Amino acid sequence: MASAWSVCGIMKNFLIVLTLSALSLMGCNKNSTSGFSTKIGIVLDGSVPEDQRDLIDLDLSNLSRLNLSVSSSDLQVLNVNSFSGSDLVGWLTTRVHFIVGEDFDYAEQASIVGTLSYRPQIFSSTLLDDDFLAQNSLVTIMVNIGSALYRYGKNNSEVLTLDVGGQRIYVRSPRVGVIQIGEGLFSSWSVRGTSSNTLANSLIRLSVFFHEARHSDGNGDNVTFPHAVCPDWHDYGGNYSCDSSSNGPYVVDSIMLRNLRSACVGCSNTEIQTFKAFQADAESRLLPGSTYKDIRPEQIP
Ligand SMILES: [Zn+2]
């Protein structure tokens, strides 16, 4: 793909911003944001515009109706018994609890409520990975802000809360599960020239939710499955847009795109080709020598 977009390209700046804004977090004014509960239980924060809320509700309804026949290796990556709607909903709702809009201000809604010597229950220590890098040339599709806040708290030995969807949640695990809509979700990440409410675009969006959900997993150095820097020879050379995990977010992306394509019944050739192009892009992000990583999420007791 010649065009450049990144599912979570802005994360490093995000973390830098969090660091800079830490002192202003305590005691800032809060506006309660009401939530909309979807049929599968994921809450859409009041910052999600109504038209986008309807589309995401459609996407999640489509997810619950899926029944895909997939390979055993695909089942292994997601660690599910099947790609039935109920199994996929279960997988996603374990990792994503809230979706917030592009305008959601995490700095305003987050609070530091105490200090803690972070001693998460860690299962293993794997490779050193880095955070996600901001690239102005890349378009953000979605960001898992819950896992970013978890990393921030862990790095600073602070306990954070976040007000989201009319609730206050404690950030004690990468599975806090708050993902934010990026500017490209309803534009770049779709079939060019088609409406946002087509079946093809709905299924393509679902692949992003699954990518973000994988960022709610992991422990130790690999907590949140951060992306790796792409080598110089790569289309995304120098950007944190690759994975060194063969069960990481981009592999999840490519698996979902390949299988969701088969659910795109009656879709046009252009739509099918878009699935394939996005899948090829995701597959290109997997670095040579990638290995399976432990998905078990660490947790602050
Ligand atoms: Zn990502």
User: Strand order, biggest sheet?
Assistant: 2-3-6-12-9
- Total of domains: 1
- For the report, how would you describe the main beta sheet? 5 strands, mixed
**Overall body shape:** globular
Would you count the extended β strands for me?
Answer: 14
Which descriptors would you attach to this protein?
single chain, 301 residues, alpha/beta, five-stranded mixed beta sheet, three-stranded antiparallel beta sheet, 10 helices, 14 strands, globular, disordered N terminus, binds zinc ion
Q: How would you summarize the topology of this molecule?
A:
Blueprint: E1 5-6, H1 11-20, H2 22-25, E2 35-37, E3 43-45, H3 50-64, E4 67-68, H4 72-78, E5 83-84, H5 85-95, E6 98-100, H6 106-109, E7 110-115, E8 139-140, E9 142-144, H7 145-156, E10 158-164, E11 167-170, E12 178-181, H8 199-214, E13 243-245, H9 249-262, H10 269-284, E14 286-291
Parallel strand pairs: 1-8, 3-6, 6-12, 13-14
Antiparallel strand pairs: 2-3, 4-5, 7-10, 9-12, 10-11
Helix pairs in contact: 1-7, 3-5, 3-8, 8-9, 9-10
Zinc ion binds at residues 7-8, 211, 215, 227, 249.
Question: In words, what does this structure look like?
Answer:
The chain is α/β, with parallel strands linked by helices and 301 residues long. It has one domain (5-285). It is 36% helix and 17% strand. The protein contains 10 helices and 14 strands. It has helices at 11-20, 22-25, 50-64, 72-78, 85-95, 106-109, 145-156, 199-214, 249-262, 269-284, and strands spanning 5-6, 35-37, 43-45, 67-68, 83-84, 98-100, 110-115, 139-140, 142-144, 158-164, 167-170, 178-181, 243-245, 286-291. The strands form 5 sheets. A 5-stranded mixed sheet has the order 2-3-6-12-9. It has a 3-stranded antiparallel sheet with strand order 7-10-11. Helix 3 packs across helix 5. Mean pLDDT is 85; it is low at 1-32 and 124-136. Bound molecules: zinc ion. Zinc ion binds at residues 7-8, 211, 215, 227, 249.
